[in-house]
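user: Kindly work through both lines:
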Amino acid sequence: MPGNKTIAVAMSGGVDSSTAAALLKKAGVPIVGMTMQLWNQRRLPELYPEGGPAGRCCSLDDVYDARRVAEHLAIPYYVVNFEERFERDVVRPFIEEYLAGRTPIPCTLCNNHIKFDQFLEMAEAAGAEQVATGHYARIRRDEKTGRLLLLRGVDSARDQTYFLWGLTQQQLERALFPLGEYTKPQVRQMAAEMGLPVAAKGDSQEICFVPNGDYAAFIDAYFRERGEPRPPVRGEIVDTNGRTLGEHAGVHHYTVGQRRGLNIAAGEPLYVIATDPATQRVIVGRNDELLRGSFQVSSVNWFPFERLEEPVRAHVRIRNKHIPAPATVYPASSPGTVEVRFDEPQRAVTPGQAAVFYDGDLVLGGGWIC
């Protein structure tokens, strides 16, 4: 734990960030609680499931719960409004990526551009030198190189390093993950023992600005709300030989590996193999056609070193729930780009998702799948 430097805790109102704050307070660290207001919950009400935004991250109820925890811990507490920045750096890129036929990860964008960027600036204004969050991850310093390393959390089922690969050395220097050495059951037990009012609260499940989990419906509603013309999105569904099988209402309704919702008749199960926004085509094929042995990754960020000089062996995760698969990562001709070659082809390598490279618990780095 840090010494007597003031720490700003990003309090989401959930058990994880609340326990992180309580652990720091128990250790005698001066802390201040801060909740980020990221999205106006009154926007796009037609998308809300019946009963309201239950189970979502960063809802108004979460702000209330975070304030209750801060009062319980007797710490200063603030709500900071990042709605404009969040819409610009997370929501708009999310929409643009889907319309471009890719499948984005807004949580990674939020970590890179909001939680460990804008939030750090706000924390500094409040007199805090570091930011603590409830992420299940660990930070270590390489004594030989002096670089900060990112490691998986002890609880492999809760490890969140897949969403943290973009953090820079400067951001890691000012970040704390108090829960990295604990499992989720231990966290809940500690929360109960410390009397936190959210000890039994369930985990959030949905992206904070997509209340019903329907990304395509959100994109359509967003354009309607703003009165903006939506780009042309209708097109053909074709097989891998280019034969037309049907029509679709927009490439943003589809992602690689998808089977449901194709609404086409075929003699065998078909899956989305790729989307082509340039032609507005959705390409479908057999399950075995989803397998890919190699692909490129851009905007790569490394932890043990600044850049990749020679091929490295790693286990590569291509989506959050994917079991990392053995591969060799090669430097590519474009700066910040690498080529991944799996030992065995993997299913549904999806443009817009992240590829994260591991050596055991150590996160070597990560980037965006091209």
